[in-house]
What does this fold into?
Amino acid sequence: QVQLVESGGGLVQTGGSLRLSCAASGSIFSPNFMGWYRQAPGKERELVATISSGGITNYQDSVKGRFTISRDNAKNTVSLQMNSLQPDDTAVYYCNYYGLHRVWGQGTQVTVSS
It folds into this structure.
């Protein structure tokens, strides 16, 4: 079993920055992918960014150049630095681990006020 604990999130004004962090514990399988997804009210959950244990990243087009995903394999953590936040970024953000199984965090709210 893998457990994910998220931190960060909150309320920020347009143009502001936030940093999300997620720590994985338990039976971590390597190689794996970790990343962030988000779900806005009335919308489906969507990929924001992922990073492989080898450091290969993938971003949703709308966040390229504004968000940066990083990870520390020794600590089994993944972070998402979010800059130039826009109201459309408002959503619940979920940490995701994908090794032998896909595991989701509990979600953390990000609200960007206009």
